[in-house]
Protein backbone atom coordinates (compact mmCIF):
# COMPACT_ATOMS: atom_id res chain seq x y z
CA UNK A 1 0.00 0.00 0.00
CA UNK A 2 1.18 3.51 -0.79
CA UNK A 3 1.15 6.40 1.60
CA UNK A 4 -1.67 8.86 1.02
CA UNK A 5 0.74 11.76 0.99
CA UNK A 6 4.10 12.86 -0.34
CA UNK A 7 6.75 13.48 2.27
CA UNK A 8 8.20 16.96 1.78
CA UNK A 9 10.55 17.77 4.66
CA UNK A 10 11.27 17.37 8.32
CA UNK A 11 10.72 19.99 11.00
CA UNK A 12 10.30 20.48 14.72
CA UNK A 13 6.73 21.13 15.81
CA UNK A 14 4.70 21.70 18.96
CA UNK A 15 2.18 19.08 19.96
CA UNK A 16 -1.25 20.71 19.49
CA UNK A 17 -2.44 19.05 22.70
CA UNK A 18 0.34 19.02 25.32
CA UNK A 19 2.50 21.75 23.73
CA UNK A 20 5.70 19.68 23.90
CA UNK A 21 8.37 20.15 21.27
CA UNK A 22 8.28 17.13 18.98
CA UNK A 23 9.35 15.99 15.50
CA UNK A 24 7.10 16.82 12.60
CA UNK A 25 6.90 15.90 8.94
CA UNK A 26 5.73 18.36 6.33
CA UNK A 27 3.62 16.40 3.85
CA UNK A 28 1.34 17.23 0.97
CA UNK A 29 -1.45 15.80 -1.12
CA UNK A 30 -4.17 17.17 -3.40
CA UNK A 31 -5.92 18.76 -0.40
CA UNK A 32 -2.97 20.83 0.71
CA UNK A 33 0.15 20.85 2.84
CA UNK A 34 0.04 19.55 6.40
CA UNK A 35 2.31 19.20 9.34
CA UNK A 36 2.09 15.64 10.62
CA UNK A 37 3.01 15.27 14.28
CA UNK A 38 3.57 12.18 16.30
CA UNK A 39 3.58 12.96 20.00
CA UNK A 40 4.67 10.08 22.26
CA UNK A 41 2.11 11.23 24.83
CA UNK A 42 -0.83 12.46 22.73
CA UNK A 43 -0.51 10.38 19.56
CA UNK A 44 -0.56 11.27 15.86
CA UNK A 45 -2.34 14.38 14.64
CA UNK A 46 -1.93 16.96 11.89
CA UNK A 47 -2.58 20.62 11.10
CA UNK A 48 -2.94 22.35 7.77
CA UNK A 49 -0.07 24.64 6.68
CA UNK A 50 -1.24 25.65 3.20
CA UNK A 51 -4.39 24.93 1.20
CA UNK A 52 -2.52 25.20 -2.11
CA UNK A 53 0.42 22.77 -2.37
CA UNK A 54 1.59 24.34 -5.65
CA UNK A 55 1.99 27.71 -3.96
CA UNK A 56 3.81 25.99 -1.10
CA UNK A 57 6.24 24.30 -3.48
CA UNK A 58 6.90 27.64 -5.23
CA UNK A 59 8.26 29.15 -2.01
CA UNK A 60 11.62 27.38 -2.26
CA UNK A 61 12.81 29.30 -5.30
CA UNK A 62 12.29 32.63 -3.51
CA UNK A 63 14.06 31.53 -0.33
CA UNK A 64 17.25 33.37 0.49
CA UNK A 65 19.83 33.86 3.20
CA UNK A 66 18.72 35.75 6.31
CA UNK A 67 20.41 38.84 7.73
CA UNK A 68 22.53 38.27 10.82
CA UNK A 69 21.60 40.48 13.73
CA UNK A 70 22.88 41.08 17.25
CA UNK A 71 21.73 38.61 19.91
CA UNK A 72 20.33 39.30 23.34
CA UNK A 73 20.05 35.79 24.75
CA UNK A 74 22.22 32.70 24.78
CA UNK A 75 21.49 29.22 23.48
CA UNK A 76 20.23 27.35 26.56
CA UNK A 77 17.07 25.27 26.16
CA UNK A 78 16.71 25.55 22.40
CA UNK A 79 14.09 27.12 20.17
CA UNK A 80 11.46 28.44 20.88
CA UNK A 81 12.36 28.78 24.55
CA UNK A 82 15.49 30.95 24.19
CA UNK A 83 13.98 34.14 22.68
CA UNK A 84 15.57 36.34 21.91
CA UNK A 85 16.96 37.10 19.64
CA UNK A 86 19.11 34.07 20.34
CA UNK A 87 21.99 32.88 18.14
CA UNK A 88 19.71 30.39 16.33
CA UNK A 89 17.45 33.07 14.93
CA UNK A 90 17.83 33.43 11.17
CA UNK A 91 16.46 36.87 10.44
CA UNK A 92 16.95 40.41 11.69
CA UNK A 93 14.04 42.65 12.69
CA UNK A 94 12.10 44.00 9.69
CA UNK A 95 9.29 45.33 11.87
CA UNK A 96 9.82 46.06 15.57
CA UNK A 97 6.60 46.30 17.56
CA UNK A 98 6.37 48.25 20.80
CA UNK A 99 3.19 47.58 22.74
CA UNK A 100 2.80 50.86 24.61
CA UNK A 101 -0.30 49.93 26.60
CA UNK A 102 -2.44 46.99 27.56
CA UNK A 103 -5.61 49.07 27.70
CA UNK A 104 -8.16 48.75 24.93
CA UNK A 105 -11.65 50.01 24.18
CA UNK A 106 -12.63 46.69 22.58
CA UNK A 107 -12.47 43.13 23.85
CA UNK A 108 -11.94 40.89 20.85
CA UNK A 109 -11.99 37.18 21.58
CA UNK A 110 -8.99 36.53 19.32
CA UNK A 111 -6.89 39.37 20.75
CA UNK A 112 -3.19 38.44 20.67
CA UNK A 113 -2.50 40.88 23.45
CA UNK A 114 -5.42 39.76 25.63
CA UNK A 115 -6.02 43.46 26.02
CA UNK A 116 -8.55 45.31 28.08
CA UNK A 117 -7.59 45.91 31.69
CA UNK A 118 -4.04 46.97 32.40
CA UNK A 119 -1.84 49.97 32.09
CA UNK A 120 0.41 52.10 29.91
CA UNK A 121 4.18 52.02 29.66
CA UNK A 122 5.83 55.28 30.66
CA UNK A 123 7.40 57.56 28.09
CA UNK A 124 10.85 56.86 29.59
CA UNK A 125 10.35 53.11 29.29
CA UNK A 126 9.19 53.45 25.67
CA UNK A 127 12.21 55.59 24.83
CA UNK A 128 14.55 52.92 26.24
CA UNK A 129 12.83 50.33 24.04
CA UNK A 130 13.13 52.48 20.92
CA UNK A 131 16.83 53.11 21.62
CA UNK A 132 17.44 49.43 22.20
CA UNK A 133 15.72 48.47 18.94
CA UNK A 134 17.69 51.05 16.96
CA UNK A 135 20.97 49.90 18.50
CA UNK A 136 20.18 46.21 18.01
CA UNK A 137 19.82 46.93 14.29
CA UNK A 138 23.12 48.87 14.21
CA UNK A 139 21.38 52.23 14.05
CA UNK A 140 19.51 51.19 10.91
CA UNK A 141 16.17 49.99 12.29
CA UNK A 142 13.62 50.97 9.67
CA UNK A 143 10.08 50.10 10.64
CA UNK A 144 8.58 50.69 14.06
CA UNK A 145 5.03 49.68 14.76
CA UNK A 146 3.38 51.35 17.75
CA UNK A 147 0.83 48.94 19.08
CA UNK A 148 -1.05 47.82 22.20
CA UNK A 149 -3.73 47.25 23.43
CA UNK A 150 -5.10 50.29 21.70
CA UNK A 151 -2.17 52.73 21.41
CA UNK A 152 -4.32 55.80 20.79
CA UNK A 153 -5.54 55.52 24.41
CA UNK A 154 -2.03 56.29 25.70
CA UNK A 155 -2.08 59.87 26.95
CA UNK A 156 1.35 60.53 25.38
CA UNK A 157 0.62 58.97 21.99
CA UNK A 158 1.52 62.09 19.99
CA UNK A 159 4.78 62.53 21.91
CA UNK A 160 5.59 58.84 21.32
CA UNK A 161 5.18 59.13 17.54
CA UNK A 162 7.16 62.37 17.58
CA UNK A 163 9.94 60.65 19.51
CA UNK A 164 10.05 57.77 17.04
CA UNK A 165 10.39 60.19 14.13
CA UNK A 166 13.16 62.13 15.87
CA UNK A 167 15.05 58.92 16.60
CA UNK A 168 15.17 58.24 12.87
CA UNK A 169 12.84 55.32 12.25
CA UNK A 170 12.18 55.51 8.54
CA UNK A 171 8.62 54.24 8.84
CA UNK A 172 6.41 54.57 11.87
CA UNK A 173 3.13 52.69 11.86
CA UNK A 174 0.27 53.27 14.26
CA UNK A 175 -1.55 49.98 14.77
CA UNK A 176 -5.10 50.96 15.74
CA UNK A 177 -8.71 49.77 15.85
CA UNK A 178 -9.69 53.23 14.56
CA UNK A 179 -12.21 54.21 17.25
CA UNK A 180 -10.34 57.34 18.32
CA UNK A 181 -9.59 58.16 14.69
CA UNK A 182 -13.32 58.04 13.95
CA UNK A 183 -14.31 60.06 16.99
CA UNK A 184 -11.55 62.64 17.43
CA UNK A 185 -10.90 64.69 14.32
CA UNK A 186 -8.48 66.94 16.14
CA UNK A 187 -6.34 63.89 16.94
CA UNK A 188 -6.29 62.91 13.25
CA UNK A 189 -5.20 66.45 12.39
CA UNK A 190 -2.28 66.05 14.80
CA UNK A 191 -1.37 62.74 13.15
CA UNK A 192 -1.28 64.42 9.75
CA UNK A 193 1.79 66.37 10.88
CA UNK A 194 3.78 63.09 10.72
CA UNK A 195 3.09 62.39 7.03
CA UNK A 196 6.07 61.09 5.08
CA UNK A 197 7.23 57.84 6.63
CA UNK A 198 4.12 57.55 8.79
CA UNK A 199 1.24 55.17 8.22
CA UNK A 200 -1.92 54.22 10.03
CA UNK A 201 -2.26 50.44 10.21
CA UNK A 202 -6.03 50.28 10.54
CA UNK A 203 -7.82 47.18 11.78
CA UNK A 204 -10.46 46.66 9.06
CA UNK A 205 -12.11 43.26 8.80
CA UNK A 206 -14.90 44.10 6.38
CA UNK A 207 -17.70 46.46 5.51
CA UNK A 208 -20.60 44.98 7.46
CA UNK A 209 -21.52 44.61 11.10
CA UNK A 210 -21.93 40.82 10.93
CA UNK A 211 -18.15 40.52 10.56
CA UNK A 212 -17.39 42.85 13.47
CA UNK A 213 -19.95 41.28 15.77
CA UNK A 214 -18.38 37.90 15.10
CA UNK A 215 -14.74 38.97 15.43
CA UNK A 216 -14.89 41.96 17.78
CA UNK A 217 -18.24 41.59 19.58
CA UNK A 218 -19.37 45.06 18.48
CA UNK A 219 -21.00 46.70 15.51
CA UNK A 220 -18.10 48.68 14.10
CA UNK A 221 -18.82 49.07 10.39
CA UNK A 222 -19.88 52.71 10.71
CA UNK A 223 -16.93 53.53 13.01
CA UNK A 224 -14.51 52.11 10.44
CA UNK A 225 -16.07 54.14 7.64
CA UNK A 226 -15.92 57.28 9.77
CA UNK A 227 -12.27 56.55 10.55
CA UNK A 228 -11.57 56.23 6.82
CA UNK A 229 -13.40 59.54 6.20
CA UNK A 230 -11.19 61.31 8.73
CA UNK A 231 -8.00 59.72 7.38
CA UNK A 232 -9.04 60.69 3.84
CA UNK A 233 -9.78 64.23 4.94
CA UNK A 234 -6.17 64.65 6.06
CA UNK A 235 -4.73 62.31 3.36
CA UNK A 236 -2.96 60.12 5.91
CA UNK A 237 -1.43 57.02 4.28
CA UNK A 238 -3.29 54.01 5.61
CA UNK A 239 -2.99 50.24 5.34
CA UNK A 240 -6.16 48.27 5.96
CA UNK A 241 -5.42 45.24 8.12
CA UNK A 242 -7.97 42.46 7.87
CA UNK A 243 -7.99 39.42 10.12
CA UNK A 244 -9.58 36.67 8.06
CA UNK A 245 -11.53 33.75 9.44
CA UNK A 246 -13.26 31.08 7.39
CA UNK A 247 -17.04 31.38 7.28
CA UNK A 248 -16.87 34.83 8.86
CA UNK A 249 -15.24 37.18 6.38
CA UNK A 250 -13.33 35.01 3.90
CA UNK A 251 -16.08 35.73 1.37
CA UNK A 252 -15.49 39.47 1.70
CA UNK A 253 -11.77 39.50 0.86
CA UNK A 254 -12.37 40.82 -2.68
CA UNK A 255 -14.81 43.43 -1.38
CA UNK A 256 -12.24 44.74 1.12
CA UNK A 257 -9.66 45.03 -1.67
CA UNK A 258 -11.92 46.84 -4.10
CA UNK A 259 -13.02 49.22 -1.33
CA UNK A 260 -9.40 49.98 -0.41
CA UNK A 261 -8.25 50.43 -4.01
CA UNK A 262 -10.91 53.08 -4.51
CA UNK A 263 -9.64 55.25 -1.67
CA UNK A 264 -6.84 57.73 -2.18
CA UNK A 265 -5.47 57.50 1.37
CA UNK A 266 -5.38 53.69 1.42
CA UNK A 267 -1.93 52.47 0.38
CA UNK A 268 -2.64 48.78 0.63
CA UNK A 269 -4.29 45.91 2.41
CA UNK A 270 -2.64 43.39 4.69
CA UNK A 271 -4.60 40.18 5.18
CA UNK A 272 -3.86 38.08 8.24
CA UNK A 273 -5.32 34.56 8.41
CA UNK A 274 -6.53 34.23 11.99
CA UNK A 275 -4.03 32.70 14.45
CA UNK A 276 -5.05 30.75 17.51
CA UNK A 277 -3.30 31.88 20.68
CA UNK A 278 -6.01 31.76 23.32
CA UNK A 279 -8.24 28.91 24.37
CA UNK A 280 -9.89 28.61 20.97
CA UNK A 281 -8.48 25.82 18.76
CA UNK A 282 -8.50 26.14 14.97
CA UNK A 283 -10.94 23.37 14.03
CA UNK A 284 -10.94 21.65 10.66
CA UNK A 285 -11.41 24.59 8.30
CA UNK A 286 -8.63 26.95 9.19
CA UNK A 287 -7.78 29.52 6.48
CA UNK A 288 -4.16 29.69 5.31
CA UNK A 289 -2.01 32.17 3.43
CA UNK A 290 -2.54 30.43 0.07
CA UNK A 291 -6.24 30.10 0.90
CA UNK A 292 -6.39 33.90 1.09
CA UNK A 293 -4.52 34.20 -2.23
CA UNK A 294 -6.94 31.83 -3.96
CA UNK A 295 -9.93 33.75 -2.62
CA UNK A 296 -8.40 37.01 -3.87
CA UNK A 297 -8.19 35.50 -7.37
CA UNK A 298 -11.74 34.15 -7.26
CA UNK A 299 -13.33 37.23 -5.70
CA UNK A 300 -11.65 39.81 -7.93
CA UNK A 301 -12.55 37.90 -11.07
CA UNK A 302 -8.81 37.29 -11.71
CA UNK A 303 -8.00 41.02 -11.69
CA UNK A 304 -5.43 39.88 -9.11
CA UNK A 305 -4.27 36.29 -9.38
CA UNK A 306 -2.52 33.92 -6.99
CA UNK A 307 0.42 33.89 -9.40
CA UNK A 308 0.79 37.68 -9.03
CA UNK A 309 2.02 37.17 -5.46
CA UNK A 310 5.60 36.40 -4.57
CA UNK A 311 6.62 34.75 -1.30
CA UNK A 312 8.58 37.55 0.39
CA UNK A 313 12.22 36.37 0.16
CA UNK A 314 13.06 37.32 3.76
CA UNK A 315 10.35 35.00 5.10
CA UNK A 316 8.96 32.90 2.26
CA UNK A 317 6.96 30.63 4.50
CA UNK A 318 4.75 33.29 6.01
CA UNK A 319 4.48 36.42 3.87
CA UNK A 320 3.29 36.95 0.30
CA UNK A 321 3.16 40.27 -1.47
CA UNK A 322 2.29 41.97 -4.72
CA UNK A 323 2.41 45.58 -5.91
CA UNK A 324 -0.13 47.13 -8.20
CA UNK A 325 0.39 50.14 -10.40
CA UNK A 326 -2.45 52.34 -11.60
CA UNK A 327 -2.86 52.99 -15.32
CA UNK A 328 -5.81 54.23 -17.40
CA UNK A 329 -7.53 50.87 -17.15
CA UNK A 330 -7.15 50.53 -13.41
CA UNK A 331 -4.66 48.72 -11.22
CA UNK A 332 -2.16 46.31 -12.77
CA UNK A 333 0.13 43.94 -10.79
CA UNK A 334 3.79 44.81 -11.46
CA UNK A 335 4.69 41.23 -10.69
CA UNK A 336 2.44 39.67 -13.36
CA UNK A 337 4.02 37.15 -15.76
CA UNK A 338 7.50 37.75 -14.37
CA UNK A 339 9.71 35.24 -12.66
CA UNK A 340 11.16 37.48 -9.99
CA UNK A 341 12.84 34.59 -8.19
CA UNK A 342 16.08 35.21 -10.09
CA UNK A 343 16.28 38.64 -8.48
CA UNK A 344 15.73 37.36 -4.96
CA UNK A 345 19.31 38.01 -3.86
CA UNK A 346 18.87 41.66 -4.77
CA UNK A 347 15.66 42.10 -2.82
CA UNK A 348 16.56 43.39 0.63
CA UNK A 349 15.53 41.56 3.78
CA UNK A 350 12.96 44.15 4.58
CA UNK A 351 9.25 44.00 4.67
CA UNK A 352 7.07 46.15 2.49
CA UNK A 353 8.53 49.35 1.22
CA UNK A 354 11.26 48.30 -1.24
CA UNK A 355 9.39 49.06 -4.44
CA UNK A 356 7.81 52.27 -3.15
CA UNK A 357 11.13 53.55 -1.85
CA UNK A 358 12.85 52.89 -5.14
CA UNK A 359 10.13 54.62 -7.12
CA UNK A 360 10.13 57.61 -4.81
CA UNK A 361 13.87 58.00 -5.36
CA UNK A 362 13.72 57.02 -9.02
CA UNK A 363 16.26 58.61 -11.34
CA UNK A 364 17.94 57.74 -14.64
CA UNK A 365 20.20 55.12 -13.06
CA UNK A 366 17.57 53.43 -10.93
CA UNK A 367 17.37 49.70 -11.00
CA UNK A 368 14.64 48.31 -8.82
CA UNK A 369 16.60 45.38 -7.52
CA UNK A 370 20.02 46.66 -8.45
CA UNK A 371 20.91 44.04 -11.02
CA UNK A 372 21.10 44.51 -14.75
CA UNK A 373 19.06 41.41 -15.50
CA UNK A 374 15.96 43.21 -14.34
CA UNK A 375 16.26 46.07 -16.84
CA UNK A 376 13.16 44.79 -18.60
CA UNK A 377 11.31 45.07 -15.36
CA UNK A 378 12.53 48.64 -14.94
CA UNK A 379 11.51 49.51 -18.49
CA UNK A 380 8.12 48.04 -17.77
CA UNK A 381 7.71 50.21 -14.72
CA UNK A 382 8.89 53.25 -16.65
CA UNK A 383 5.96 52.73 -19.01
CA UNK A 384 3.62 53.41 -16.11
CA UNK A 385 5.35 56.59 -14.97
CA UNK A 386 4.41 60.00 -16.37
CA UNK A 387 6.85 61.21 -19.07
CA UNK A 388 8.12 64.05 -16.89
CA UNK A 389 8.44 61.89 -13.74
CA UNK A 390 12.20 62.47 -13.55
CA UNK A 391 11.56 66.19 -13.29
CA UNK A 392 9.20 65.76 -10.35
CA UNK A 393 10.35 67.07 -6.97
CA UNK A 394 10.87 64.51 -4.20
CA UNK A 395 7.51 65.53 -2.72
CA UNK A 396 5.74 65.15 -6.07
CA UNK A 397 7.31 61.72 -6.63
CA UNK A 398 6.19 60.70 -3.16
CA UNK A 399 2.63 61.86 -3.78
CA UNK A 400 2.53 60.19 -7.20
CA UNK A 401 3.70 56.86 -5.80
CA UNK A 402 1.33 57.08 -2.84
CA UNK A 403 -1.63 57.70 -5.11
CA UNK A 404 -0.75 55.31 -7.92
CA UNK A 405 0.60 52.18 -6.31
CA UNK A 406 -1.15 49.69 -4.09
CA UNK A 407 0.41 47.01 -1.94
CA UNK A 408 -1.35 43.73 -1.09
CA UNK A 409 0.30 41.48 1.45
CA UNK A 410 -0.70 38.39 3.37
CA UNK A 411 1.04 37.68 6.67
CA UNK A 412 0.35 34.41 8.36
CA UNK A 413 1.64 34.07 11.89
CA UNK A 414 2.61 30.87 13.64
CA UNK A 415 0.61 29.45 16.55
CA UNK A 416 1.17 26.26 18.52
CA UNK A 417 -0.96 24.27 16.06
CA UNK A 418 0.89 25.19 12.84
CA UNK A 419 4.27 25.84 14.48
CA UNK A 420 7.20 24.74 12.41
CA UNK A 421 10.72 25.59 13.36
CA UNK A 422 11.81 27.11 10.07
CA UNK A 423 8.89 29.55 9.96
CA UNK A 424 9.55 30.83 13.44
CA UNK A 425 13.32 31.13 13.06
CA UNK A 426 12.88 33.19 9.88
CA UNK A 427 10.22 35.45 11.40
CA UNK A 428 11.12 39.11 11.00
CA UNK A 429 8.30 40.80 12.93
CA UNK A 430 9.57 41.11 16.48
CA UNK A 431 8.12 42.39 19.73
CA UNK A 432 10.49 44.77 21.49
CA UNK A 433 10.05 43.88 25.15
CA UNK A 434 10.31 46.17 28.19
CA UNK A 435 13.34 44.17 29.42
CA UNK A 436 15.05 44.92 26.10
CA UNK A 437 14.79 41.73 24.15
CA UNK A 438 13.44 41.01 20.69
CA UNK A 439 10.99 38.17 20.54
CA UNK A 440 9.49 36.94 17.26
CA UNK A 441 5.82 37.93 17.25
CA UNK A 442 4.55 34.36 17.02
CA UNK A 443 6.85 32.97 19.72
CA UNK A 444 5.85 35.87 21.97
CA UNK A 445 2.17 35.02 21.61
CA UNK A 446 2.62 31.27 21.88
CA UNK A 447 4.67 31.21 25.06
CA UNK A 448 6.34 34.41 26.24
CA UNK A 449 3.58 37.02 26.56
CA UNK A 450 2.45 36.26 30.10
CA UNK A 451 5.94 36.92 31.50
CA UNK A 452 5.58 40.53 30.42
CA UNK A 453 2.18 41.23 31.99
CA UNK A 454 3.95 42.62 35.08
CA UNK A 455 5.15 45.61 33.08
CA UNK A 456 1.58 46.62 32.28
CA UNK A 457 0.01 46.47 35.76
S1 LIG B 1 12.25 31.85 17.81
FE1 LIG B 1 14.22 32.68 17.21
S2 LIG B 1 14.89 33.89 18.97
FE2 LIG B 1 13.27 32.53 19.67
S3 LIG B 1 14.35 30.74 20.43
FE3 LIG B 1 13.79 30.33 18.30
S4 LIG B 1 15.59 30.96 17.13
FE4 LIG B 1 15.80 31.85 19.16
S1 LIG C 1 -8.82 46.00 19.24
FE1 LIG C 1 -6.85 44.97 19.07
S2 LIG C 1 -5.88 45.27 21.08
FE2 LIG C 1 -8.06 45.74 21.32
S3 LIG C 1 -8.96 43.82 22.04
FE3 LIG C 1 -9.19 43.89 19.79
S4 LIG C 1 -7.38 42.80 19.02
FE4 LIG C 1 -6.97 43.33 21.16
Q: Could you name the CATH class of the largest domain?
A: Alpha Beta
Give the ligands present: iron/sulfur cluster
> How is the main sheet built?
12 strands, mixed
Total beta strands: 16
**Count of alpha and pi helical runs:** 14
The string of secondary-structure elements, in order, is EEEEHEHEHEHHEHHEHEHEEEHHHEHEEH
Outline the low-pLDDT stretches: 368-375
Fill in the CATH topology of the largest domain.
Answer: TIM Barrel
What is the overall shape? globular
Query: Radius of gyration, Cα only, in angstroms?
Result: 21 Å
The CATH architecture of the largest domain comes to: Alpha-Beta Barrel
Ends distance: 59 Å
Walk me through what this model shows:
It is a single chain. The relative contact order is 0.14. By secondary structure, the chain is of the alpha/beta class. The protein contains 14 helices and 16 strands. It has helices at residues 53-58, 123-136, 157-166, 179-183, 185-192, 209-216, 221-233, 253-261, 289-299, 354-360, 375-384, 394-404, 421-425, 441-448, and strands at 6-14, 21-29, 32-39, 43-50, 95-99, 143-147, 171-176, 198-203, 238-244, 266-273, 310-311, 319-327, 330-333, 405-411, 429-432, 438-440. The chain has 2 domains: 1-50, no CATH class; 95-411, Aldolase class I (TIM Barrel), CATH 3.20.20. It is 27% helix and 22% strand. The structure holds iron/sulfur cluster (2 copies). One iron/sulfur cluster binds at residues 79-80, 82-86, 88-89, 424-425, 440, 443.
